[in-house]
Amino acid sequence: MHKSMKQLDENQKGITGIETAIILIAFVIVASVFAYVVLSAGLFSTQKAKEAIHAGLEEAQCTIEVKGNIYGRMTGGILQEVYFTVGTTTGGDSIDFTDTSGNNTNLVVISYSDAHQIFPTVNWTMTKLNTVDADNMLDNNELFMITVDLTCVSANATPEQMPGPYHTFQLEVKPPSGAVLVLERTLPARVDQIVNLY
Fold it and tell me: CB within 8 A of 32, min separation 6: which ones?
């Protein structure tokens, strides 16, 4: 019996050092590839989060707001022009209001829409109310009055589509970068030559 046990021990082979080293190296390579994938995914998601934060900050810093009331000029009970004053939000960046309407390349685009018509861009002009420099950049502590010409709306409308009493319309002021300023107003029942639009 002792002899057969000894024979059994002689037939068994163990794992040599080189085989152990190969297995260990394979585990290290697999682990390093997995770690690289995890790190790359983490860096990619961090970069995307950083881009989203910067885009949000730029959007918030280039925001314009209405300062005061919005007025409309009526002719024969039909809305012809809209006047409103804009300024930047507190701590906001400058916005270029250069009027280049001669070649249809306004930097700030104003569009009109109502229940019957959509105009992707309408003509507008800018009047500086207070300014600290000669350029057309709307800076902090500056106010610009915008005059929107809506004669194209009434020119293309049928009598029931004319912007008159009880007519609801929407203006969108779209700067080159930053949030869009949406102005939705309804014309009052009794209209004078100049009406305050609420």
Answer: none
Closest to 154 in 3D by CA, of 164, 144, 168:
164
Bridge partners of residue 172, in order along the sequence:
111, 182
Q: Which two tokens stand for residue 83?
A: 């006047």
Q: Are 137 and 147 in contact (CB under 8 A)?
A: no
Q: What is the share, in percent, of the chain residues with pLDDT greater than 90?
A: 19
pLDDT tens for each residue of 41-63: 777 777 777 766 656 655 555 57
CA atoms of 99 and 106, how far apart (whole Å): 6
Among candidate residues 113, 75, 107, the one with its CA nearest the CA of residue 94:
107
Q: Which of 110, 109, 86, 114 is nearest to 170 (CA)?
A: 114
Instruction: Report which of 105, 106, 103, 108 is spatially closest to residue 172, judged by C-alpha positions.
Output: 108
Cite the DSSP H helix spans in the chain.
Answer: 2-11, 17-61, 151-155
**Helix/strand/coil for 22:** helix
Residue of 49, 54, 83 whose CA lies nearest to 68: 83
171 with 110: CB under 8 angstroms? Answer: yes
Give the predicted TM-score (pTM) of the model.
0.67
Strand partners, 158: none
Picking from 67, 68, 63, the residue whose alpha carbon sits closest to that of residue 89 is 63
